[in-house]
Write a structure and sequence with these properties.
Elements lengths: L5 E6 L7 E5 L2 E7 L4 H21 L6 H20 L7 E5 L7 E4 L4 E5 L7 H14 L7 H7 L5 H17 L11
Parallel strand pairs: 1-3, 4-6
Antiparallel strand pairs: 2-3, 5-6
Helix pairs in contact: 2-3, 3-5
């Protein structure tokens, strides 16, 4: 596996543990300040590989056939009993040109487009967006009936809050960009 670029941050407060996380799409490894360069070369790459494997398991599939299967499974699990009708013909695909929306649906032809930005999200967040767009196949607006369709998804409020927080952070930029910021 080719190692992606990783920013290593040393922490005087961290004594023994190492951790890897994503920050604005980049991989960051947080390590104790006293870690030697040799220890860093030995310990960080396997930790990054483990992180990437776990992350890949929490994400939606890249292939559109697999994405269609995921959408059908979500429909069967959370929407089928609420709609009372079979899932209409639809397509779902990744798009790279949605920078302000997480997904979109044209109910007239059943086409669902998902922002490629969702590929870095936890699976329960991506699943929410798919369900949201599938619900638009039955209710084209955000009416009470639309929200009733989604009410059975157990991570509904958590996923919405995650996306709002993510978007807020993306819109805010890094700390210190404000002209009068003390940081």
């Amino acid at each position: 596996m080719t190692q992606p670029e990783v920013e290593v941050r040393r922490s005087a407060r961290r004594r023994r543990t190492l951790t890897v996380f994503r920050e604005r799409g980049r991989l960051v490894a947080l390590v104790p300040a006293r870690l030697t360069a040799a220890q860093e070369r030995e310990l960080v790459p396997p930790l990054v590989e483990k992180f990437l494997r776990r992350e890949a398991g929490r994400r939606l599939p890249a292939q559109e056939d697999d994405l269609m299967r995921r959408a059908r499974d979500l429909y069967d699990s959370y929407l089928a009993t609420r709609t009372g009708v079979p899932l209409p013909v639809f397509t779902v695909r990744w798009v790279g040109n949605q920078q302000r929306r997480w997904g979109s649906c044209t109910s007239a032809d059943g086409s669902i487009r998902l922002s490629a930005r969702l590929r870095t999200m936890p699976l329960w967040v991506s699943d929410y967006v798919i369900l949201h767009e599938l619900a638009h196949l039955f209710e084209p607006n955000h009416s009470a009936a639309f929200h009733d369709l989604l009410a059975g998804y157990p991570h509904l409020e958590r996923a919405k809050a995650f996306l709002q927080g993510y978007q807020h952070a993306a819109d805010s930029g890094p700390v210190g960009d404000e002209p009068d910021s003390p940081f």
